[in-house]
Batch of 3 targets.
Target 1
Amino acid sequence: MNKHYPQISAYLAEFADELGYEILIEPSYGYVGRIKTRTGKILFYHTTRFDINGLGASEIAKDKTFASYFMKELGYPVPEGDSFYSDYWSKIVKSDKDTMAAVKYAEKLGFPLIVKPNSESQGRGVVKVHNVDELKGAMSMIFEDIKDRVAIVQEVAVGKDYRIVVLDREVICAYRRTPLAIVGNGKSTVTQLLQAKQAEFVTRGRDTTLTIEDPRIAHSLTYLHSTLDTIPESGKTMELLANANLSSGGDAEDVTDLLHEDYKKMAIKLTRDMGLRFCGVDIMTGGPIDQPISDYTVIEINSAPGLDYYAETGAKQKEIVKNLYRKLIQYMINA
């Protein structure tokens, strides 16, 4: 197999003889493949999307607005928020939920707020805004640059960010996520510190590309009274993005062995309630993760959680992810 293929395809090719299936991987990029079992069952995968979750449930999970609606109706705490359309799409669907409606809603809800695309993943386009001009700018980026027709405006959830990964009735892993951040040394500029972080990713074999020119980084620096040329004092930590996705430079701390049974039960039940078998449950909580649930908010769910970055945090985590995919294939074969 081409060594440049993504890890998921390498794993599935490795399992083929053990689990008794034939695998055909698209050769150009290696992100998609076809599996044929001994009994003739045909299964497909596309990156981390497998034939394990139902199509309807997967589509709902992908749509943040719909997913939030159903989770709220089912009794799960979600951030207060609403969705709004681009001005063009508002006219097409004959809705008054346009940019100006978003402004009125935001002023009623109160700043700061989170603005994000409705259908994107991996933290793409997520911005923390502090006033109307920033709100309009964030929505313009979502509508014009990212090409999503729907933007979500919601309150800022407070607490520590965790992802809990569920496969059927089992929590496979859990980890805390922290946003892209740098720590000053009193000598290097913000740009140089980001370049050093990128070099560290390469050394660790982590496939994360930092975009130093990302306007969201400049936006965050403004509120830190800094620029890319600023030299942060030694020991000073600066968070540069509002989202904690590992794909955008965030870091992970494994908490699988610490996770309290309450959180496990909640994540498993939520996965089942949303019609899924395989799911990443993203939460914010102000309480300790090893203590009973006190207060928490479900930020999002993901029916195809990417775990490559988590796997890169250590040998144990890599083995957890590898075993997850082995189980996942076994479940699909035996279904």
Note: The longest helix spans residues 315-334.
Target 2
Amino acid sequence: VPGLAQSWRVSDDGLSIVFRLRPASFAGGRPVTAADVVASLKRARAGRAGPQLRDLMAGITAVSAPLDNVVEIRLSTP
């Protein structure tokens, strides 16, 4: 079930997933951007969101925000 993602596309080789974010705001009203999502995923990969989440993120090799509403996740294996 989509939460923050409006749509997503998996590359043919299965090593990249590109998410287009739906419009969303934080509780204070500031819009959620792809940079915010990237920062959250990087914190999780570093273990600052708990070891279980870090372990789930082990296959991620890179996370980027090529546009304000697009997040790309690169994977080590499909």
Note: The mean pLDDT is 92.
Target 3
Amino acid sequence: MEKNRQEVLEELLSMLDQLAYVRPEEIPNIDLYMDQVLSFINDRTRYLTRNPDEDKIFTKTMINNYAKTKILPAPVKKKYSKDHILLLLLIYYFKGVLSVGDTGELLGKITERYFGNNEEMTFEDIYKEVFKLEAGEIEFLKKDIVEKFQIAEGTFPDAPEESKEFFKTFAFICLLSYDVFMKKLMIEKLVDECCKSVEDKIQKEK
């Protein structure tokens, strides 16, 4: 039975309610081999993929490429630490928005100083602080999605009756896409400014 548009909206909102980041305390406190890392991350993030029964967040090739391009520090004796897993999770969240180069540039400023560092602010501290924002942001997103849905419902009043459902959904997709497009431009601008600011500071200290 085909879902009506209200059911689709409720499904989208329910999906947001189910989102939950991987908490550092869930991550083993022992170093893991590649297969163990893949099993841990893919098991806990599979629900975020488009086709959970088939898709994987990471593969061996992907992780090896991140190490080769210096986005991910190399494993020690083929084992990956808790910080490696936290960094991979951050890479995953960014890779849908930023290029590999921008992701490496941004996260590199953090890993250079805090990866594997247990003396001052740790990499885990940074990860926790970022994801503390999750709950409030989800509530904001739910409200924003409902508003966009309602706007889309008022579009294409003169479309042929048999096509109205499609065009309303198309309008909804356009509203969501425009939001993502504009935020992506802003994120790229912020990455450029953030990384430039760090480089300028380093040059002055030299």
Note: The chain has a mean pLDDT of 88.
